[in-house]
TrEMBL record:
One Gene Ontology cellular component: chromosome
Species this protein is from: Microbacterium maritypicum
Domain (ParB-like N-terminal): residue spans on this chain: 9-94
Pfam families linked to this entry: ParB_N
Protein name per the record: ParB N-terminal domain-containing protein
InterPro entries per the UniProt record, alphabetical: Chromosome_partition/occlusion, ParB/Sulfiredoxin_sf, ParB_N
Region Disordered: start-end pairs: 122-153
GO BP annotation list: chromosome segregation; positive regulation of sporulation resulting in formation of a cellular spore
Cross-referenced Gene3D superfamilies: 3.90.1530.30
Amino acid sequence: MQKGGGIELRRAVDSILVGHRHRTDLGDIDELAGSIDREGLLQPITITPDGVLVCGARRLAAIKKLGWTTVNVWIRSGISDQLGQLLAEQDENTLHKPLTKLEAAGLYRELKRLMAEDAARRKASTQFSSEHQPGHDGAGKFPEPSTATGDAREQAAAMIPGGVSYKTHEKINYLRDLAADPSQPDHVRAQATADVEQLKRGAAVHPLYARTRADEEEARSAEMRRLGVESIQRAAAAKKGAQPPRTPGSEEDVTVRFPTRAFVQTWGELADWWTHYDAAELAAVLTDEQVDSFLAAAAGTARFADDLRTARAALDSEDTELGQQRHLRVL
């Protein structure tokens, strides 16, 4: 059965290759095996097109304990050759040249994404099992899978040789993303690009990350301050009944302004919207374009929120000053 980025089908259990870094402490398998025996395997394990295990080491151990000879698997396409080779390695003696920091961080990111997808599918499938139906105490109970999405970072890092923590991988990927982000100021991108080059030469990660992160945050703060000043100027001009100056060709010259009632209605309907979604599930199914579109809208919303907050504070300040002036005149 074809689904999105992979194919689900039946496969012989003995044909699934388990690489060296999958041989970790799997904990107590008996409870999981009992659940699978009662409910069946609600979510297939994930393998590469070559039959190498990607996600589901505990599930595979449980069905072997139950004596299964075949099992449903999810064959995940789009896995890089380098990650496929890493997953397939059977012994430390067969390891190739050690991974560079950038290679390790790239594989970590790929593994984290695959594990998050797997955890999201498992969560969706277990929500409707007989063990998790609504009871007398209200709505259905939807617990996280045994290896929850929130653990994907640590699991992915543990599978990358070298013993580097997920925090270090995240810092490296932060610098790489910053260098490639066209929305960043030129000096921030240039610094991040230089950092990546230094990482290739073996430089320590945290000092580069800390410095560039501080630069990026300062640039963002400066932009917020600039927007705040412009907002105050617009508010002051509006207070006096004058039109704020516009730059020819600016976005304000072409943007259609909606009435206030549209703002109130829109945000009234969006109250607490984030409580109705699961970030891990969305991360697993949304396209890059869809995620980028949402993040851009969220960033714009945050900037507008700062503008509105600053403008409101400016109006309150003016009202307070006028009140003090009236009070002095009375005295």
